[in-house]
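To: structure subgroup
Subject: Chain for Friday's discussion

All,

I'm putting the inputs and outputs inline so they're searchable in the archive.
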Amino acid sequence: MPTFDLTPPTDAQRALLAANLSPEERRVLLSHGTEAPFCGVFLDNKRDGAYVCRFCGLPLFRSSAKFDSGTGWPSFFAPYAAEHVRNLRDDSHGMVRIEIVCARCESHLGHVFPDGPKPTGLRYCLNSVALGFVGDGEALPDPLGRGERLGGPG
């Protein structure tokens, strides 16, 4: 598995990337919002590849870890690499949950719950708007200019 640079974007890179987001992408990624269920572009995506952070391009989840949770959001049982996502305590909305953010840019992705399938028993429940998709054999987006590539099987 390739190694990726997890150094956060500079303030200038962050400002440039944020300027290219739609209002909905900004609301979810930067303000910890949630998109409506059953409407995300990746909910029914069946292509082989990797799901990447919409903000910084870091690979987050493989299509081989995706499953239909019936919740209305794309769900995965394991990340691309454990170090690519970070768990944060989320006390909002009168409940305690585990928020997941991109480990490189800290963009909000969704939440993780302990009700997923084997082998992990976890359900990473993501907002489609927080993701990009790279099909097997396609190059990663490289918004930070780090020369990272993916290709090969997702």
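Points worth raising on Friday:
The two ends are 10 Å apart (CA to CA).
Helices lie at 11-19, 23-29.

D.
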